[in-house]
Amino acid sequence: MKFTDGYWQLRPGVTARYATSVADVDVADDRFTLYAPVTRVRHRGDTLNGPLVTVEAWSPAEGVIGVRLWHHGGRRPRTPRFPLATDPDGGPAKTVREGPTVELVSGALSLKAGTEGPCTLEFRSGGKVITSLGPRDLGFVTDADDRHHMLARMSLGVGETVYGLGERFTPFTKNGQSIDIWQADGGTNSEQAYKNVPFHLSNRGYGVFVNHPGKVSYEIASENVGRVQFSVEDQSLEFFVFAGPAPKDVLRRYTGLTGRPALPPDWSFGLWLSTSFTTSYTEETVSRFVAGMTERDIPLSVFHFDCFWMREYQWSDFVWDPEVFPDPEGMLSRLKERGLRVCVWINPYIAQKSPLFAEGMAGGYLLKRADGDVWQWDKWQAGMGLVDFTNPAAREWFAAKLRHLLGQGVDAFKTDFGERVPTEDVVWFDGSDPERMHNYYTQLYNETVFDLLVEERGEGEAVVFARSATAGGQRMPVHWGGDCESTFEAMAESLRGGLSLGLSGFGFWSHDIGGFEGTPPPAVFKRWVQFGLLSSHSRLHGSKSYRVPWDFGEEAVEVTRDFTRLKHRLMPYLFHAAVEAKESGTPVMRAMLLEFPEDPATHTLDRQYMLGADLLVAPVFSEDGTVEYYVPEGIWTDVLTGKRVSGPGWRRERHGFRTLPLLARPGSVIPFGAVDDGPRYDWADGVTLHVYPGGADGSETVTTVPARSGAPAAVFTIRRSGGETVVETDSDLAWNVVVVGAAPADDARAHPAGALYQAPPGTHRLVVPAAGG
User: Where's the Glycoside hydrolase family 31 N-terminal domain (predicted)?
Assistant: First the structure.
């Protein structure tokens, strides 16, 4: 929210008060508190009739410093609040007072404040200032409507760029943007967002989380081009600064505080096929789609039933439409016999025509108005009410309906909606503040469903397909990008949103392959298939038209087949990246900045990404197959063609529909599984290690092939020395090595990628001679 009119003036009706000096300071071993008047104090009389801004600093975990400022501290605590964890392994913070300054030190991060003169805060890491707040950067503002806002402004350095703030489809770097953290159902081509997260990441090696679940207004190099300003309509404001130095370190610390993603089940990484939204479908339609995929040799892992599995005007009542699906248990059993998992669409809105409306009203499970009536409107479903998840009994009631579906054979839920949550004339069961609940509602909704899946299916088998989220929502994967059009432009919008979400702590992300609104031209569909199957999760879904590949031509079938099978072979690699997301908060799909923070050319790239640590993906966004992408330093190898590409530099290429730039990092080792007809198999049995050129002599690479639990199933150490490649492992299973681009030696055979060396079961060491390397 903007309060100033240029540099010199305030907007009409605005009054601003800033912490101008420090009148007193309290210092403890692990924190300090500043008392800052908002006017110049020349004598004792100036201490009368004027407010103080109180500023407290502490550390919840190593490398993390929290700051809380407030004007009036007498307000009762508001709920909901983000649940935050402290790092049990983090060292204690210490406070040092020296002369006219006080400094709080937490690992590599420190906060220095002046105790005499102007009120200033200076964050340091690695011996240098990373950001600061000056005398006009902490305070409170009242606007023309007498609303009270707390605000903070943090400095931006020359060349500093800002990322994150949730899944945002606006430009990737947020500099110059005004952003409100406020859940909205706005599609992928607007400034609104389904997933709003009050966390931003800087390319200068730090991140900032505003600990407020309601509306947070950001001005990012917009109102003041040298500052990031954030404000809340409240009497207090709390934020945390996370040290780097690398962006991955920032995400590790941030997700350590707000939660790390659960590990999704292996089957969820396969291809999902949907009925689409308003299309006509019956069991015969579903069977035809599934059989069509089998006939065309396209492996399918999950079948999804969208909204109309239930009767119209009754969403959500969780009852199969008896006219369309007279035998749901039998149908689900028949799908299971084909090896498929089943997902069904749900949302937390209860239509008035549904019997559940009266049931929920009688039980007190629906959100109420101040006069005790159920809150209702006619958008989406006629007379719908909203499940009040702040009521534990309502959560159990809602979960019980889903538990019945799990008993029928459903495996996962698409938890749609959760954004349009009212704030006027509503009373939550637990007394939560309506403004704070608007964004937070999705957390309780997804948590209710995810916890049920963990309870019924066990950890590692629970997965939702969620649209809305806020900070901490990353704990409950997977999330998808919402309603996009069926164009190249919308495909690029979706990628921007996914990269932005990944830089906000979310490890797993998907999108509607082919686009949601409209019917994609065959070129768009085929290019989106490539992109979709080189994403963490992959779903074919549309609105008014089907997304079965044969509707877009025979070549679309071939592209879908090839890239589905490629993804299955990459499961040892992809699941290892998934384990990294679970353990450190690093997303599976990574903005180039995450892997190459020292290369400034990567800091604005939003049309390419790293899939895991070692695969560069550059989707094609053009009708004629032309693609421009940036290659960081070193010799990269195209996984699909074997072509070498040297960086640093930009490339301009033209690709047919069977290829796109998919490059292996210099010196990387990519494990390929032995099975391509599904994601669930023993990835270590028969694994083939593709050793790519570019590794320095004397270098050592450790490659871990995970088990389904995420624990290591096999660990390989690859050393390059004097032209030889030496591979050692603890695995007793059969495994192979391909030295990419090399001609086979006497003890190897030809392979499309190079020279193949086979290690029978029980082989723990293999030497690839220089002649083969």
Answer: 59-218
